[in-house]
Amino acid sequence: MFWDEVYKGTPPWDIGHPQPAFQAVIQNGEIKPGRALDIGCGRGENAIMLAMNGCDAVGMDLAEDAISGAKAKAIERHVKVNFAVGNVLQMDRLFEEGEFDVVIDSGLFHVMTDEERPVFARQVHRVLKEGGKYFMLCFSDKEPGEYELPRRVSKAEIESTFSPLFNIIYIKNSVFDSLLNPSSRKAYLLSATRS
Length: 195
Known about the structure:
The chain has 195 residues and is an alpha/beta fold. The protein has helices spanning 2-6, 20-27, 45-52, 64-76, 116-127, 155-162; strands spanning 35-39, 56-61, 82-85, 100-106, 128-139, 166-176, 185-194. Helices cover 28% and strands 28% of the residues.
């Protein structure tokens, strides 16, 4: 599978620390202790950060290699996180409805196809409690580049995908940290609540 192959090495988003955008969201109190899910968690940096900040954290990824790396990292740092292999488009197979207070997404939404986006939004909506928070970091259409992937996402696309099921609090300019261009990739950070 493509994602397992990617994790045989070090993909550019595997930066060895949490994304600064999510660190800021925790520091300013937008994420409070509660049950939290990191979808597309990769090797677990953001999920581990959630756990270290008082959350009952779960990390989920399609790539088995990423999940085994995340489990090892959590053990090494003496942090309790439950990691699971799973597909975000089928989260109803893994989690109860309304199970989480918070869902975070660091660079997962922007790999979804147009057809997958509404399914994705429904699955995130389903696992959140009423009033639960969803934070998403994706490449923005302001990020130049000749590469087609990851897709660049516009504010309008974010709104049309999530506004039917969520109250959008903000979509603000942010940065997606990566090994290729540390601290310089233009991104959007979405904050939304399940309506």
